[in-house]
Write a sequence for this structure.
């Protein structure tokens, strides 16, 4: 597998665009379109929040269709908690694209991100459709990435190539999200996390869905910015088969190779989200090792990644590791506290549940002064591991989120 | 029931003191003692964090004794994650008091609050014991309240009187805690929440424990400052029988009257904690009504009370109620989103899951500008209710917690 240039238009046959529809008060790009030149199979995972935005409901319904060719996305408005009007608006968004591209409405998927509880300016979206479709291009993945941003400070794109038999398959992706980030998405199932993946691999819809699930569980479902789960989280993938590899239909060699590449792409994109978390000044990787089960390791890693106190001390470059221990202990997972070790970078702070005598606060502080910080919690009770990613918690986070809708 | 002046020394036969032992670098009061002149029955609830501080372990053990007469508490150091040294230090703390007051070690309970993973300066504590015991007085409940504070900005005390038959029973209480506040305590089981309750009621140990559990579930277990559960949370009650009421031994009229008064005392103290939350500028009450079960209502109320995004918008006086909906939806509780109403003070923002047309943002903002803010979520699906309390999330919170141990 190699990393290549580009984003969602890196795989063969995908076009993208991003335009200004006037949804965002700032006047920035706010409407995006992703298009496959040939019918593709699609899979998607959505938020498990009980409140689901209208585009999530509509995309779930449309996903029952066998093939898909386009995804329309707006930023600046979540189209959530708007009742039947919201549902109709989401269907209209898909309908505009279907009409213009001469497709069936059910071949179109939709996503929204932004403020909850305000009605979508659907006329502005309709007015922007001709330009949105007209701008579709192999070179516009950057515009797409930009148009889906809310409080994101950077575009987030990635593409890889992997050899399957004699064919070379590409996977491309772009994502957004810097707040209300604590996704827990399942395939049956204000900022928000959105991800759009594309591939020219030939793969069945069922295998694509299984592969996406595996990739998401170890990537997007392991990041947190603020512990707040969005109503709009969505991760889509379209596979159009243009790479002409032997079609992947079940779990075998090619499936695992493809899934590994997809997992890599998803993880790298997920890390970009954590790194750009609202107000973030530092990126934090939390590894939990030696757990009895992967689920245990995940729960502990996720709990630490959502501890405000832990994230504040990272911001303050203060190696107050007791907060890591407290968060692990609050996870609900049963473990023997008398076996646990905690490392700050390479420095052991806790050994067998006891604070290390001679722990060098100065050296630990030097580690906390870096941009990238690694915390390891070793339970020494089994062989399962998990890794979560988060960012520090800064005054800027509060500033950004206390002034969001105003 | 009437509210009376004072704190833990309001009930007959209780004395308290608070002195400077030199544990806190600031030189403030940091060692406290609560004493009943006659043997009392005691009950306590402790953190359900897997990591438990040494004084929690020691108090759990000592609670097996039939009677208790004193509780020693230090602030400035949590005595947590210090292994066997920490356990021995906690036993020593109890031992110092036992020796000085000629009691059995097991009649003494202990609590600590402060930084995790630093060893207790046990010699300083030992040196301060003569003054600590010598200062015991009916008038020193305020010194006790002060000596248990960490980043608290105010003392938190309350006392009530309630008539049981011909006798009048008093309940007194004091508590501390403004961060690492998201307790979930059970009777079998850096800042931290600590509460000390006293009563001169005659009551059996079993009835006292049951009553405490009931009181805690609707009070301390319903507050959050930052969603971080402490390793040291403890709530103690001692009942010395000096009010000479007919002994409460089982659930009957007097039990319920007593429990109601205890619940009131605990709730008022719990609200003081949320109101003084680290960096707090506003106090927030979240009521969830019309739930199918009390557990459902509690889970939703607690989830909203820990939403950083919701708490940031309260700080910013921004009526962004979508964050309340998103948090409710992320609680894991199943409810019909098409029935739910959300109120900001008296203003309805969401009706039957749909944003209210004509919602007056200006009026809502006026409500958010107040010191005390009430949010109501009505599920309209049952008869169960619950209330949670929290504070807003300010830049000051981040400042306080990024500089805690340094």
């Amino acid at each position: 597998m190699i990393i290549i240039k580009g984003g969602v238009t890196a795989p063969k046959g995908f076009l993208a665009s991003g335009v200004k529809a006037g949804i965002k008060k700032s006047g920035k790009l706010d409407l995006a379109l992703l298009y496959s030149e040939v019918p593709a199979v699609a899979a998607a995972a959505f938020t498990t929040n009980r409140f689901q935005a209208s585009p999530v409901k509509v995309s779930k319904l449309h996903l029952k269709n066998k093939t898909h060719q386009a995804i329309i996305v707006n930023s600046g408005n979540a189209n959530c908690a708007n009742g039947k009007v919201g549902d109709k608006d989401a269907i209209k968004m898909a309908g505009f694209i279907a009409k213009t591209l001469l497709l069936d409405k059910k071949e179109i998927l939709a996503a929204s991100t932004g403020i909850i509880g305000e009605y979508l300016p659907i006329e502005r979206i309709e007015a922007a459709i001709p330009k949105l479709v007209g701008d579709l291009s192999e070179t516009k993945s950057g515009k797409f990435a930009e148009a889906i941003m809310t409080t994101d400070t950077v575009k987030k794109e990635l593409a890889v190539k992997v050899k399957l038999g004699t064919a070379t398959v590409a996977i491309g992706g772009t994502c957004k999200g810097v707040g209300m980030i604590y996704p827990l998405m399942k395939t049956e199932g204000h900022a928000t996390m959105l991800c759009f993946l594309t591939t020219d691999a030939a793969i069945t819809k069922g295998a694509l869905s299984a592969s996406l699930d595996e990739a998401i569980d170890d990537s997007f479902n392991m990041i947190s910015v603020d512990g707040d789960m969005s109503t709009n989280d969505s991760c889509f993938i379209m596979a159009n088969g243009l790479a002409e590899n032997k079609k992947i239909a079940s779990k075998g060699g090619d499936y695992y190779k493809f899934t590994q590449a997809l997992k890599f792409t998803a993880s790298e994109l997920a890390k970009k989200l954590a790194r750009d978390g609202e107000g973030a000044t530092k990126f934090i990787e939390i590894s939990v090792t030696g757990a009895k089960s992967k689920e245990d390791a995940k729960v502990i890693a996720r709990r630490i990644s959502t501890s405000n106190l832990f994230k504040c001390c990272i911001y303050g470059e203060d190696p107050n590791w007791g907060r890591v221990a407290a968060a692990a202990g609050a996870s609900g997972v049963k473990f023997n506290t008398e076996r646990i070790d905690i490392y700050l970078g390479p420095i052991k702070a806790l050994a067998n549940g006891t604070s290390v005598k001679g722990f060098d606060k100065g050296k630990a502080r030097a580690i906390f002064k870096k941009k990238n910080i690694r915390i390891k919690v070793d339970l020494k009770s089994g062989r399962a591991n998990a890794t979560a990613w988060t960012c520090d918690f800064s005054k800027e986070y509060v500033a950004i989120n206390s002034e969001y809708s105003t």
Notes: Chain B touches chain A through 74 residues (CB under 8 Å). The first helix of chain B runs from residue 54 to 62.
